[in-house]
């Protein structure tokens, strides 16, 4: 078979898209490590360490803090499959692609979904949220996307937990594009359920979804009347493997966990505050650079996601031609928009190890050369 | 944080358990490769190559042949969530742990489950299967485990497709512990749906589940009356990413796919027939060695799974003490039994790169030393 002859030969790309972002060489090297068994005492210690590191990154004391075996989509499905029962009311702040996906998943698990609508790129105030919670009482979950990857808009979290808990709901957030790059403190913001992804600001390969759930959410899980309608992501089964019982559920991806542990160490070595500042500073540098090229940003300055920057495509410029030129001539990957923003924006990720000043310098100069042609 | 200081320091273990098995150094090295984006043309070519390699290993022409983003459990859930609709009758051959799990999953997706029962370690004849299919007509799926990891019994596949198709059902098999180690030809055996796992006889790390479905099954999928009640594993969404449309569903685990592609190449370089012979020869060598130690095998010779050998624990021998000694003194991992076989058997995996003559020599001598103490 001809294919057997071809060695893996992957081009070098500067990854400035919506993820995967560049992976730190230490993380890449760690994944060449030999495997051990999923009940080996040395492996069980690694699991404990990984959880401790992950709690520090999430800034939570939540016991139920696991890297789920899947990407962010699996993290989202973990949230909705475990905490929704048929007939529950779920309120979703709809302002981009990933909140639409939240609605879809909540429906799969039988939720009565109530949408709060904003145009793509909009954000919600606590007062707007409270109004919908009061109207639809009792609400089981209020779900928001913290940093919307499809629009580059950042949802402020201040004051939301109060209105959510006052109305008896759980506060659920998607922090796929924020965790490790943008200020986020699960316990201080009193968030009940959150999930993220390994391949964004944490700088690891895709394949794991960091997940955390607090006591309020666990109580809801314990009191379910029906069984969780998903086997692979069932937290009531998974907690038996992650807690002291160590009951086998599925074989974790040893290699991805090696890499994830190393990635979390790198995050904490740098320090969360330093890391957030770095992401912010490189984003601001990008915004300035784009403005000097005459390019506008989609989102107003105070609501921008520094890890995912949305640049408006000027009239008469061919979206795909620019991206192809970036890739083929400069080996740089960025992404286009989708849904209502298709053809209207470029999405420039500055996440994790990809968020470096020199990457912005290179990208901006490449854009200058391409656009002046 | 103290943990930040500790480098990953994993002991070397000879992995002779139920998986993960030892990973070939070429596969380990491939996973240190830099990442590229999930819509990069180079990545899309890699996906095509991976599918072509996987079809060759499954011995199928099925277009719907993907490595699913999860372990074998996710593969099993892919099968039941996509091909079962509420109220469908599913017949499961129940003879071990993983067929029990099949029943559990089929029920989650609303199936009316009919069990054909055998004691753990038993196997089924086509006549026994036909009887139950006829009794319960119409049956949507007949599901069997090819190589049962909990018992070491091999289910012969000859003659089963005929009775299944004659009765209008789909033939579904779990080949988690057989693919790449034991003779299996999806198209020749006329199997409609099959799933496996990367970390067994294919010698890759855990995290991917090779999956294949033929035309009969795809037709059933196309004609579903209800949507697939699982988002992450929904084949109707995934096929849009794997086919020419390339519509984003979730970000694949770049690193695991690099490793998996390399692992599949190694399988095909060796050749399937050679690989099956190697697994058989090393298993037979193990059986002889165990007999010279006075140890009996659980399953009779003609029905043994060569990749997963179940050795009866002699009266008076302490299961856990032997396994601890193997691990602590010899760095060898094997596994115990579970369910009705807990404390009664050891499970010795000879899978993929772990299936080497010298590993059997070492393991057998270590056992001799431990047991004569």
Could you characterize what this model shows?
Two copies of one chain form a homodimer. Chain A has 373 residues and is an alpha/beta fold. The first copy, chain A, folds into two domains: 14-19 and 272-372, Aspartate Aminotransferase, domain 1 (Alpha-Beta Complex); 25-268, 3-Layer(aba) Sandwich (Aspartate Aminotransferase, domain 2), CATH 3.40.640. Chain A has helices spanning 25-30, 41-58, 72-83, 97-108, 126-135, 160-166, 215-222, 235-242, 254-270, 272-292, 319-330, 357-372, and strands spanning 14-15, 64-68, 89-94, 112-117, 141-145, 170-174, 193-195, 209-213, 308-312, 332-333, 335-336, 345-349. In chain A, strands 2-8-7-6-5-3-4 form a seven-stranded mixed β-sheet, sandwiched between helices. In chain A, helix 6 links the parallel strand 5 and strand 6. The termini of chain A are far apart. At the A-B interface, helix 1, helix 2, helix 3, helix 4 and helix 9 of A face helix 1, helix 2, helix 3, helix 4 and helix 9 of B.
Structure summarized in a few sentences:
Two copies of one chain form a homodimer. Chain A has 373 residues and is an alpha/beta fold.
Layout: helices, strands, pairs:
2 copies of one chain form a homodimer.
Chain A: E1 14-15, H1 25-30, H2 41-58, E2 64-68, H3 72-83, E3 89-94, H4 97-108, E4 112-117, H5 126-135, E5 141-145, H6 160-166, E6 170-174, E7 193-195, E8 209-213, H7 215-222, H8 235-242, H9 254-270, H10 272-292, E9 308-312, H11 319-330, E10 332-333, E11 335-336, E12 345-349, H12 357-372
Parallel strand pairs in A: 1-10, 3-4, 3-5, 5-6, 6-7
Antiparallel strand pairs in A: 2-8, 7-8, 9-12, 11-12
